[in-house]
Amino acid sequence: MSHRYLILGAGRQGTAAAYDLVVRGDAQTIVIADASAEAAKAAAARVNALTGRDMVLTERVDVTDVDAVTRLLEPADAALSAVPYWLNLPITDAAISVGTHLADLGGLPELVHDQLKRDQAAKNAAVCIVPDCGQVPGTGANLMAYAVQWFDEPRDVVLYDGGIPLDPKPPWHYELGFNMDGLTNEYDGETTYIIDGKPVQVGCFAVEEYELVEFGGQFGTLEAFSTNGGTTTAAQTLGPRVRTLKNKTLRYVGHSAQFKAFRDAGLFEQDAITVDGAEVVPRRVFHTLIEPRIRAPKGARDVVLNRIKASGRKGGAETALELDVFVYPDEDLGFTAMQKATGWHAAIVCHLMASGEIDHGAQPVEVALDPAGLLDAFRDRGFHVEERVTTP
Predict the structure, then answer these.
(1) Cα 301-306-311 angle, rounded to 5 deg
(2) pTM score, two decimals?
(3) For residue 5, which of 29, 26, 23, 22 has the smallest C-alpha distance?
(4) Whether CATH 3.30.360.10 fits 136-336+383-390
(5) What CATH homologous superfamily does 3-134+341-373 map to?
(6) Which of left, alpha, beta for 28 (phi over 0: left; psi -120 to 50: alpha)?
(7) Which of 29-43, 149-163, 172-186, 317-331 has the lowest mean pLDDT?
């Protein structure tokens, strides 16, 4: 059966998702809608050219116009919101109102929890709502769920993940491949870990959670540190089954010290301050200054690293599981690793929803998907997936 898809947002991730849905999503049509008609047309033309099919259409839409978004949602079987996170709640309500399945790329735990409160309304409308798709929390939460299910008695599960440049350049040794707001939110506030079987609020850049992780080869030693959002719902859904559940962000060594200094100086604050008689918002100033310096240039080569380290009992024996999922850029298609890791995960979710393989309701991503099936989907897409099992 073929499906009709809607993608809100013609940016990098939305374009990558559209490609995957054309190639692997049993698509009948895909509509890419964006505030910029030119951006939507460029994204559609690119996907149509890559796939050799004239399947992707375009619409211009102001996503703050709920009525206009609702009209676009109504004929679609499934939709992806690839627009800024603060727009996802009204889009969720609109999708439920017209009976269209919806996935989104998340971005703020508080909003995700509000979306999940629509569970009964979504069930009544026979609709699937799956927020927080993409690299993390999406893939990360699914990999943590895989580790928990893999053991007979899971105990400790830690996910290390990050998108980093393959050719790091000083002074930042980092290149941004997604929305700047998303990065700042990731580095601000708190996250929930499970420590000694109990939920604990841990601040971003917490000194006690900093560690070095050896990857060897071209990546060498990377740093891992606490950030916001990786365990948005997993601490609740998976936490009761384990002693330890953590997600830490990977970067080249030195990155966390740089950005912690910015945070500690107040540059992440969103309340206006007065400078020389003018009101300015520190976060806007920070974004204006830093984004041009760290934005990944065209043709930049990146990698997305996911590593699960888990332990517990399996088959009556103490066992350790290490699971790697690495994503590299596709130079033939012109997609970065972050585009593939984010957009293709979201496309997988959309296809599963449209195919009736996800239960109705508003569900956390780690509950909605079968993690073993997701790993198979990643292998089919050429992701590097490797498991290492040891019994000390």
Answers:
(1) 160
(2) 0.95
(3) 29
(4) yes
(5) NAD(P)-binding Rossmann-like Domain (3.40.50.720)
(6) alpha
(7) 172-186
